[in-house]
Amino acid sequence: MISHSLKYMILAAAFSCPALASAFTVGGDNGVAFHGSVQVDALFPEEDEAIETGTFDKKLLFNSYADLNMISKYVDAGVRFEFMKWPLPGYENDFAGWGVPNVYVKGRYKGFELTGGDFYEQFGSGFILRTYQERSLGVDNSLRGGRLKYTGVNGLRLTLLGGVQRRYWDWKKSSQVYGADAEVNIEDLAPALSEKGIGWTVGASYLLKHEKDDNILMPGTDYRLNLPATVPAWDLRTQFRRGNFNILGEFAWKGQDPSFDNDYSYGIGTAAMLSAAYSRSGLSVLLQAKRSENMAYRSQRMMSGASAFLNNMPAFAWQHTYALPAMYPYATQAAPGEWAFQASAAYTFKRKTPLGGKYGTKIKLNGSYIRGLDHTGAYLHTVNSLSGTDGFRPSVFGMGEHFYHDFNITVDKKVSSALAFTFMYMNQMSNRSVIEGKGGKVRSNIFVADTKWKIDNRFTLRNELQYLHTHQDKKDWAYGLLELSIAPYLMVSASDMWNCGDTGSHYYMFGVAGNYRANRLQLSYGRTRAGFNCSGGVCRYVQATRGFQLAYSYNF
User: What mean pLDDT do residues 384-399 have?
Assistant: First the structure.
């Protein structure tokens, strides 16, 4: 007998039938087109005491999504169905559920665009507002309400919005969000700048959160906190471009916002960022610096989890795709604050030069360095504890505890028309006590060798060898991957992550993936190590698992 969960998974996959897709696709003369997608990620879990998977109540865990969107000249509309009654491991309990969490209608006419329903928006770099969906992290903090955009004047973009934020399967109407954003391209208003190849953009944003008082007591006392009903925030930014140069500066401010992030203190929040980039043929350079303090901005002060944030502080740490360099990722410390620096440079040695050889050689240097704020100052209006006070006022330029660093060099070298290599060395320090709440500092040296051999027009063989050396945590790790691609439809892989320094555990994985037209199906079996899955400084803890995995997607 088929379980209820498997029935729903089969129903979701049925949407991907090409015959059905053709029925949903309308176009041509009437100017209306439909497109959509189906995604199913499933695990048939098995218990494994050796890697501490724990127990599982269900024989099948899965997340599934089905989107359908209509596009036309004046009106767009869309709807998304989600079924996560038995979600994959690592997602919060509130993530479980099913229904239609996203539906919208959008109209356009003469520079105006009006959206009603669920939508995503970002002001500037996201310091005061960024709503988005990241399915791998379980993040979906969309706004439900209305949004008006205006682009009818050349060089001017205006946005007005209001609504309530999604919190898994709940929309908290006790907390409303209102905002406005404006950007002006100065070169469109001053042709003389454009003639000189100068681009100059100025932007400003404002956001207001209105939330009722939750009758919160100061921890350890019977004193009731006087919580503000409204928390404003604003953002100013400017970007200058000329030739190969690009400079961005941005500053954000947030009003008093006591919450568990800052121990219910009444200090204000600030964030400042400066970024400079240069690029030309064969050379690119990026330099960035950011200081943030008390910038955790939630639609409701008592909500936890990544989906509760209205804003997003970009992480100045590299998002590595190799397994061992990504083992100790960095999560942005928005509430206490941080000093973050990032630098990157890439240079390509030309062909037929001593270092370039026949096919050229590319070298990339990357660095991230992050510290906390200086905590040697004094508390303001302290009453027995930090809670209920104006909080801590760190010095503007002082730096505190070392949170994280990552310095790496990558060399890409093609030695023949069929053979190419990538070599990487990375030195990393991750302060797990700050990032994860426990574990101390882990210092590691990581080596990666990636070989790609194109056997012929159909077959390509890729091999990865990685080694992580550290004296902390579980000590040394080794990783190997062998991957065979059979164009244009099939890929087979086998990998093993081995803790050779301490436990001796093997995290093996065998997989096969196939593509046909707009369908992609991946089947795999093996172990997954417990750890953090991160993207853009936002992280989700994933417990160790073993079992069969299925990932299916279809786009039409």
Answer: 65
3-class state of residue 18 by DSSP: helix
**CA–CA distance, 426 with 410 (Å, rounded to integer):** 9
Task: Indicate the range of 43-52, 386-395, 396-405, 466-475 predicted with least confidence.
Answer: 386-395
| Model confidence pLDDT, tens digit, residues 268-281 | 999 999 999 999 99
Burial (CB count within 10 angstroms: exposed 0-12, middle 13-18, buried 19+), residue 262: buried
Q: Which amino acid is at 91?
A: Y
**Gap between the Cα atoms of 269 and 336, Å rounded:** 10
Which CB contacts under 8 angstroms, 24+ apart, belong to 472-481?
A: 472/440, 472/441, 472/442, 472/443, 472/444, 473/432, 473/439, 473/442, 474/499, 474/501, 474/502, 474/503, 475/499, 475/501, 475/502, 476/500, 476/501, 476/502, 477/324, 477/327, 477/501, 479/323, 479/324, 481/323
Q: Are strands 538-542 and 531-535 parallel, antiparallel or unpaired?
A: antiparallel
Bridge partners for 373 per DSSP: 399
Region 148-172: what's the mean pLDDT?
Answer: 93
322 CB-side CA count, 13 A: 25
Q: What is the pTM of this model?
A: 0.88
pLDDT band at 21 (very low <50, low <70, confident <90, very high): very low
Which residue shows structure tokens 């502080």? 313
What is the three-state SS of 124-167? CCCCCCECCEECCCCEECCEEEEEEEECCCCCEEEEEEEEEEEE
pLDDT score at 6: 43
At residue 480, does pLDDT exceed 80? yes
Give the C-alpha separation, 178 to 157, whole Å.
17
| Residue 408: strand pairing partners | 366, 426
